[in-house]
Amino acid sequence: MKAQRTRSQDRILNLLKALNRSVSAQDIYIELRHHNQGMGLATVYRSLEALKLEGVIQVRTLNSGESLYSCVQQDKHHLTCLQCGASIGIDECPVHQLETELQKSHSFKIYYHTLEFFGLCDRCVTEISC
Q: Who wins on pLDDT, 130 or 103?
């Protein structure tokens, strides 16, 4: 039986739907305060964790260690520059078939997956080679 969401979880989920982009927990905290729906930062983190475990939001951790949260959408894949932090979205997904196989073979419910490649963007490669 699925636990019922708290008011804080509903507020955060509604905010993420409205923003329609990935944001940090700190950004969520600030946005809620701007909308007169303030809550403690610890509550924001607890609510995000519960929503993640429910499978309705996803988290992406940047190479800086910052976590970005968004509603579960289509799979997102990125090329991330280790020098400047630029992140380029890519549309191709080579792991959809693997995901299906893993769900069947391990009786494991997969909510989403991420695929990220780390390296240097064109601009940073040029700066390093100069």
A: 103
Nearest to 69 by CA among 111, 10, 27: 27
* Highest CATH level, class, for 1-73: mainly alpha
Residue-averaged pLDDT of the chain = 88
Domains of the chain by residue range: 1-73, 74-130
CATH 3.30.1490.190 assigned to 74-130: yes
Structure tokens belonging to residue 34: 């701007």
What is the pLDDT averaged over residues 29-49?
Answer: 94
Instruction: Summarize the annotated binding site for Fe cation as residue ranges.
Output: 113
Residue 129 has pLDDT above 60, yes or no: yes
Residues of the binding site for Zn(2+): 81, 84, 121, 124
At a CB cut-off of 8 Å and minimum separation 6, what does 23 contact?
Answer: 16, 31, 68, 69, 70
Q: Which residues are annotated as a binding site?
A: 81, 84, 113, 121, 124
